[in-house]
Every structure is written in C-alpha cells, then in structure tokens.
Design goal:
The protein is of the alpha+beta class and about 425 residues long. The protein has a single domain, classed as 3-Layer(aba) Sandwich (Beta-lactamase). Helices cover about 30% and strands about 15% of the residues. It is built from eleven helices and 13 strands. The protein is globular and about 60 Å long. The two termini are about 35 Å apart.
Length: about 425
C-alpha cells in the first residue's frame, strides 16, 4: 500500500490529520486514532512452531522476540520493548522482551484509547440501571430529573445538537468534530487564535500543565461550528464525542468521571492498578512503570511525562497488562458489571466503518478480524491493544513503549503490523492441543 493510499485510509477511518513533520518544533502528543485502520493486516505463519506442545509461554516469548527483531530491522535504534499478557482455557502467562528496565504484568503504561471501552461500559451500566437510555438524544431529559444530558449552554451548542443520540456518540456516528486529533482549519469564519493549529498544542505551548475540561473541549466545537456529517450519516472516530460521553456520565451519576469509573467499574471488577488522571499537573505514571520513548531523526526522546487532561474519558487510562486483560475478559464474558445480553446487543453489535469495510466498531469496541473484540490505544511513546475472543475464550493484551517517527505515520504502521502479527501467532499457539 502506498503512503498516499495509507494516509487516505487513515483519514477516512479516523481523520488522523496530525501529519508528523518536524517533531522537535511541534511535538505530536497523541495518535489515538491511528490503530483502528491497522487492525486487519494479512498475517502469514512465520513462527516456525513445530509439534504441538503446552509450553505456550516460551513459544510466545519467541514470537515476541521475532516481532521485535523485525521492528528493529526497520529501526535498529528502536527504543521500545514488547510486553504480552495472555489468558487462555487452562492457564495464563506474561512475557516480555527488549525493555531496558524490569517489566512485569503489574508494570504501568499509558493505555490511551482503550479508555473508550471503560467509558462505554460506564454509559451502558447507567443504561442497565435505568439512569439513562442510550437511544435518547443528548438534549433529552435525564430520567427522573429536569436536567438534560448535556448542559444547555454555549459550550454545548454544537452543530446538529438536537439530533445526536448517546448511541451515536458511542459508535462514532454522531459527526462530532475531533478536537484532539484534527487541526482547526483556517477556513472557519469564527475568529479564534488557534486556526491552522491543534487546540491542545496551542494551549500547552504557553501553559504545559493547563487542565483541560469537557466543557472546554466541546466548547471548541461549538465556537468553531465544525462537524463531519449529519448525525447517523457516516462513521468518524471522534475523541471529542467521547468527551461528551464523559460529561453525560458526570451529570447522570453526580460523580466526577474518574470517580465513577473507579467506584463502579475498576473496583467491582477487581482491577487493582488502574487509574484515570484528570489534572494537567498529574503527569507522572505510578511506580513501577515503563517509560515511553519516541525516535525521531537524530535523537530519542523520553516522553513518559504527559499532560493527559485533554483526553479524559477517551484516552487517559493508566493501567497494567494484568488489569487490562482482566477487564476485557470479564467484560466480554458477562462477568463484569454488565449483563451478557447487554454486552452482546450493544458492544458487540459492530458496524462497518464504511460500506463494505472490514473495520468494524460497536459501542466502544472494535471487532478485530479473527482475533475477537477489544480496542487499541496510542499515546505518545505507547502503542497497545486488548482483545478477547468469546468463541475460543482467549484474551490478549500487548503493548510497546516506543514510537518510530523517522518516517512519520508509515513507521508507526510497521510497528503496529508486527504487533498485530504477533497476536495472531500467539493465539494460534495457545489453541494448539
């Protein structure tokens, strides 16, 4: 696939328009939308696995080593390693390779857009409890109150506000402009100082620890009047759409987003090492953690410290492989906070991103061809994926702590393709009798 075709595919699925240019002059802090269009690579068997054996962990280790070697063939100075958590019928294991520090299944990393599945779970939990209805419009009244799902102020006076449903936000079909991943075009009529710029980068240039809010992020959409299409007309991945869901969670539950997720999902599901930072000053990862790195021409930068406040509800999760695997496994098996019927009728009701596309998305969940259901994440220095297959009962979590940006988007694509191939191979290994 040529770079131009690949870029158009990215733009068509997720509108990743943050073109990676001179990174040292304008730091790119997220590529949360990158991975969705990379999930359907064609993987052939290159593991060299011989006779059936139950020594799955050692075989998976070799798969990771082959994947990392392949990544390093393209980038000999690649700064990251690969970590893998696997749960399969009869057992589980963790493997890793290539890290410069000690890494285990309880080492923290930034899971980025895997956050969206937590947000979707929270919305569906409130739906399950009768606190909201996902088929309601966002201008409807919250059940049992006189309050609308989103505020009736100027920050939420976005295009087609009266037509958007909660379900459309969950499925990225509301047409909400993505402030986190799209540049504000200079063609808009609104007089704003951040034209031809990314809003969060513009703000952080003068205040690196600024705390972004839901009202602020959605307010940019209202002020600029930007949108992609009329609600329900198409698919367009939108972090800002999930920011709106975060606001709805707060208004319906009466709790801050992070507190609701912690009280109603993280703790009840037995996750012990997952957090949702929301302040611009909360930029560190808890110990132990794996640092994140970016390789640009001429240098490798440590990008572990990050202001994640602009990504609350769509990309602020800090977690561990053990926690993330437990979450997606319990959720998909109907053993978490949602009933099996609700999971299957909403989350797993995946639709093509575009007509005829293999890229399928439900309510905060991707359907990954021949792997199962889950999500991916990309935040500066980290790439990750969680997956569970309800048919084979295999759960997989993989991440790396490096970005190769020497050739922009294509370099990250190469890394993710190798990670994706590793998951296919490992899944086949653990299903070998």
């Amino acid at each position: 696939m040529s770079n131009s075709v690949f870029n158009r595919r990215l733009y068509g699925d997720h509108k990743l328009k943050r073109v990676i240019g001179n990174y040292s002059q304008k730091k790119i802090y997220v590529v949360i939308t990158l991975l969705f269009s990379l999930l359907f690579v064609s993987c052939k068997d290159e593991t060299g696995v011989g006779a059936p054996t139950t020594n799955y962990s050692d075989q998976a280790k070799k798969v990771l080593e082959v994947a990392l070697d392949s990544i390093k063939k393209a980038d000999p100075e690649y700064p990251g390693g690969l970590a893998l958590q696997v749960i399969y019928p009869g057992g589980q294991f963790f493997q890793q390779t290539g890290f410069t520090n000690a890494v285990t299944s309880t080492t923290h990393f930034r899971a980025a857009s895997n956050t969206k599945t937590f947000t979707s779970t929270a919305i569906l939990l409130l739906h399950q409890r009768g606190r909201l209805n996902i088929n309601h419009k966002i201008t409807d009244t919250i059940p049992g109150t006189t309050m609308t799902y989103v505020p009736e102020d100027q920050n939420y006076a976005i295009p087609f506000k009266n037509e958007i449903t909660i379900l459309q936000l969950l499925q990225h079909r509301a047409g909400v402009f993505d402030v986190a991943n799209d540049m504000i075009p200079d063609s808009i009529s609104a007089s704003v100082p951040y034209k031809n710029d990314w809003y969060m980068e513009y703000i952080k240039a003068t205040n690196p620890t600024h705390t972004f809010t839901f009202d602020e992020m959605v307010g940019v959409v209202a002020t600029t009047g930007l949108y992609y299409f009329r609600p329900g007309a198409d698919f367009h991945y939108s972090n800002t759409g999930y920011s709106m869901l975060g606001k709805i969670i707060e208004r319906v539950s009466g709790k801050l987003y992070g507190q609701f997720i912690t009280d109603e999902i993280i703790k009840p599901m037995g996750l012990i090492s997952s957090t949702m930072p929301a302040l611009g000053t909360d930029r560190e990862l808890p110990q132990p953690f794996v640092p994140g790195f970016v390789h640009i021409p001429g240098t490798i930068q440590n990008v572990t410290v990050s202001n994640i406040s602009g990504n609350v509800a769509e990309g602020n999760l800090i977690t561990t492989p053990s926690d993330l695997a437990l979450f997606i496994r319990k959720l998909m098996r109907g053993e978490g906070v949602l009933s099996s019927n609700l999971v299957y009728s909403t989350m797993l009701n995946c639709l093509p991103a575009t007509p005829g596309s293999l890229s399928l998305y439900g309510c905060g969940v991707n359907n990954i061809n021949m792997l199962g259901y889950g999500h991916t994440g990309a935040h500066e220095g980290y790439l990750s994926q969680m997956i569970h297959d309800p048919v084979t009962d295999v759960t997989l979590v993989i991440y790396t702590n490096g970005w190769d940006l020497r050739e922009g988007i294509n370099s990250i694509r190469v890394t993710m393709n190798h990670m994706q191939e590793a998951l296919y191979k490992v899944k086949r290994i653990v299903l070998t009798k």
